[in-house]
Amino acid sequence: MMYLSLFLFVITVYSLISTNATYVVNRYDDIECNLKPELIKEIASYKNVTRTIMDEIISNGYGRTMYKQYSDFIDTFGARPSGSITLEKSIDHMINLTIENGLNDVTTEEVEVPHWVRGLESVVMLSPRQKNIAVIGLGTSVSTPPDGITAEIIVISSFKELENTDDKYIKGKIVLFDAHYVTYGDTVIYRSQGASKASKKGAVASLIRSITPFSIYSPHTGAQFYEANVTKIPTAAITLEDADLLRRLQDDGEKIIINIKMFSTYDQKKSRNTIVDLKGKEQPEKLVIVSGHIDSWDVGQGAMDDGGGMIISWFTPVILNLLQLKPRRTIRAILWTSEEPGLIGAAAYLNKHIHELSNINFIMESDEGTFSPRGLDVAGSKIARCIVGEVLKLFSPIDEMTNSGGPGSDITLFVNKGIPGASLLNKNERYFWFHHSEGDTMNVQNMADVVDCAAFWAAVSYVIADISVDIPR
Amino acid sequence: MMYLSLFLFVITVYSLISTNATYVVNRYDDIECNLKPELIKEIASYKNVTRTIMDEIISNGYGRTMYKQYSDFIDTFGARPSGSITLEKSIDHMINLTIENGLNDVTTEEVEVPHWVRGLESVVMLSPRQKNIAVIGLGTSVSTPPDGITAEIIVISSFKELENTDDKYIKGKIVLFDAHYVTYGDTVIYRSQGASKASKKGAVASLIRSITPFSIYSPHTGAQFYEANVTKIPTAAITLEDADLLRRLQDDGEKIIINIKMFSTYDQKKSRNTIVDLKGKEQPEKLVIVSGHIDSWDVGQGAMDDGGGMIISWFTPVILNLLQLKPRRTIRAILWTSEEPGLIGAAAYLNKHIHELSNINFIMESDEGTFSPRGLDVAGSKIARCIVGEVLKLFSPIDEMTNSGGPGSDITLFVNKGIPGASLLNKNERYFWFHHSEGDTMNVQNMADVVDCAAFWAAVSYVIADISVDIPR
Predict the structure, then answer these.
(1) I need a surface site. Which of B35, B227, B273, B415 has the fewest CB within 10 A?
(2) Residue A222 shares a structural domain with residue A350
């Protein structure tokens, strides 16, 4: 039944939107499309309304107000780690702010979330000389004994090198994974999997070179995951500077001894996904979701990751409501909770709504910065990407379209289920300089850029939620 | 007598080196020169020897060896604060290294230096919310009482604003000088003088926005000086990020209360200026001095400030000796001690040698980075700059010449006495990102750039020390 109706649906969609004539939809991404001239014309007809939305936000003060709400939110709450009281207070604040801004359709869904609390952490090099080493534990790391662990360091470049190293050289030592940053995706595996891999070879603790291309002696945290049936060893990140120092000392034949102390507690707490709806005027059951996560790491202020993405997504239904622009379908902003420990809020939402996924027409997330906007990274069928590409033409020069295959963080869970989705492309070249570090503060943000992102995000969502055709699977 | 001989000297020099024909000496700095064609020809004749020096350093391995000596020095000693045992050990190391490299003419001159030792430091914002604020005390700051000082913050933009603020708004408060970075010279006055100025208005402590244009939540230390007859109040730097946060909170009408704790000790110790001579073959009493300082702040590793400048200056007589290139005059490398607390080593040298200053033909310092070399910032008479400009032509494209009026740090004491001198121009646009912070490590250095600096520094010193004419006052 399900497959037959899906088949009929696909046939219907194609007859409504496609023709035989092909053309290149987007100057950044050579896909050949064959959308019907009527649909192309319909999409082009949104030029005036998108201009209105963007003008109201950028020039008429709405964007400035939103930025002040954002800045006040960050200054008031600061870091909002999963399971913390501060996170829950910040969620209450956003609920109240929604209602104050005239949108009453705000609900929450409870989620059980990890609550890992960092205690004192220190690393001291004892030999060949005494030196303090800046350190930051990785989320879910176990503690050391009270006196810490004192052991020799072995510096390893890659999992391959670890594999090729005899266990006897690893046993009883602290492994430092000194993998240089290539891309976040390539390098983050040392953070997420390093401890387990080192433990299997007999290491007593593991460290990583922080996952960043640039440092002013800044350690970067993030989630890590112990494999089942592996001895859980303490694991932390150090700076690029100290990783290079330890590498040079090892290359010079020095025996490097360090003491590492790490303390933390770990339990579960209740949190909430926050859902803000601007109900569609014709097909309210159909959803265009815009999202960001409201939790952050416990260092820095969570301004960039993901205060910016959270605020522009929250702002989308709020501003459209203020402008009395009700689209055909419902625009739903979701402020995911507990993204940082591993998409916990998003997984709970997926699970709860697993039988209504066909209602999600399109899903968007901004979680890679709200610097100057460039366009969208779009996942979905060719026809879905053709339609979104056509929509992007309304926003030139914010009209880049890429196809990384995995847009967003939370929304990957939905995209992997075949739901078309997109993340915000923006000039985020320095994103990982600040990511998961004390450097994630309001200072990395620029009002004009965040306002531009918000304007683009609201306008593009509006068009997708209002056009006559669904975004096909 | 002294004046008469100086007059005769000037006349003689001019007749040897100047003519009536004028030309522009340097494409970066429009000074019209009228050097005699014989001198121009003589300087041009050094092309082969400068090429040899640079080739030996850059291509034949000498530079690579020096870089390893440099890197090992930094990795072995790390930070070398004034008055510390580590600094003295690092001086011993450089003495031994000089002798190991074949140059025995190395001496030291004792200097009494400040020994300010940082203890625990913390700043916590208590209201409007609890937040740790990264802090670094300024050199020579007094301690707080054991429980710290708890007081309201007032954020002030400038000395002018402080002056225009009624004392009653300052009394009993902690002043934060939130002066945005313009240039180091413009902005550093808030660090060096802020505490005294705030104290005079009744403040109980003072903070500064760190003197840097860019931050990843990095506080920057540096020297400060209490005026006589002013109550000494504790003083420290915070990050750009927190300065902006406190500014926003004040602008929103929040009452900001912080607790600041700072502990330190302060006494005097013995240290040494280190002097490495390559004696001149014809006029050994005449000196071309090349220099950098060997001490550093107590944070970071003192790799950039001023490990790089120290090593290339030390290397100049060492490499010329190894290459058996003895110039006419003596090349003297000086590794200044205790620069950071206020040019203490340089002042002691000036004082000790005050009656022999006429022997200093030219004085150079590298203390603003050893990134890719660009040329020289030259202070001195027009004729002095004409000659140095002519010498720089040998090194095109490393041939920029500027005239800031105050080249170097230590050597300003000598330049102010009328001695011509120069500092190394280099691509140091990011210098203040790392300066006096934990970010001053080997990671900001690049081997090829440091080697290029060393090659240029040695070759340009050689020419100045060997040409037939002195650099005139």
Answers:
(1) B227
(2) no
The residue of chain B with its CA nearest to that of A248 is: B75
Report the DSSP beta bridge partners of residue B333: B276, B290
CB contact under 8 Å between A134 and B218, yes or no, is no
Q: Would residue B273 count as lying in a domain?
A: no
- Interface confidence (ipTM) of the complex: 0.94
Within B294-427, strands assigned E span: 329-336, 360-365, 373-379, 400-402, 421-426
Assigned token pair, A21: 């004539």
Question: H or E segment at A259?
Answer: strand A257-278
Peptide bond into B284 cis (omega under 30): no
User: Strand pairing partners for B377?
Assistant: B402, B423
Half-sphere exposure of B370 (CA within 13 A, CB side): 36
Other CB atoms within 10 A of residue A227 CB: 12
CA pair distance A427, A372, nearest whole angstrom: 5
- In chain B, count H helices and then E strands: 16, 16
Q: Which two tokens stand for residue B14?
A: 């001019």
Cα A16 from chain centroid?
34
Question: How many Å lie between the alpha carbon of A129 and the closest alpha carbon of chain B?
Answer: 7
HSE-CB at B304 with a 13 A cutoff on CA atoms is 28
User: Which of A134, A244, A252 has the CB atom closest to B442's CB atom?
Assistant: A244
Contact B285, B359 (CB under 8 A): yes
For the cut 80, the answer to whether the pLDDT of residue B6 exceeds it is: no
Q: How confident is the model at residue B7 (pLDDT cuts 50, 70, 90)?
A: very low
Type of residue found at B282: E
**pLDDT, tens digit (0-9, with 9 covering 90-100), for B207-219:** 999 999 999 999 9
Interatomic CA distance for residues A43 and A392, integer angstroms:
10
Single-letter amino acid code for the residue at B173? K
Report the domain count for chain A.
Answer: 2
Decide which of A266, A293, A318 is a domain's last residue.
A266
Catalytic residue among B339, B365, B390, B400: B339
pLDDT along chain A (473 residues), means of 10: 45 67 76 93 98 97 98 98 98 98 98 98 98 98 98 98 98 98 97 98 98 98 97 98 98 98 98 98 98 98 98 98 98 98 98 98 98 98 96 97 93 97 98 98 98 98 98 96
Query: Which CATH number goes with the domain that contains A435?
Result: 3.40.630.10
Chain A touched by B302 (CB under 8 Å) = no
Instruction: Confirm whether A237 is domain-assigned.
Output: yes
Q: Determine contact: B442 vs chain A, CB below 8 A.
A: yes
Residue A434 in contact with partner chain B when CB distance is under 8 A:
yes
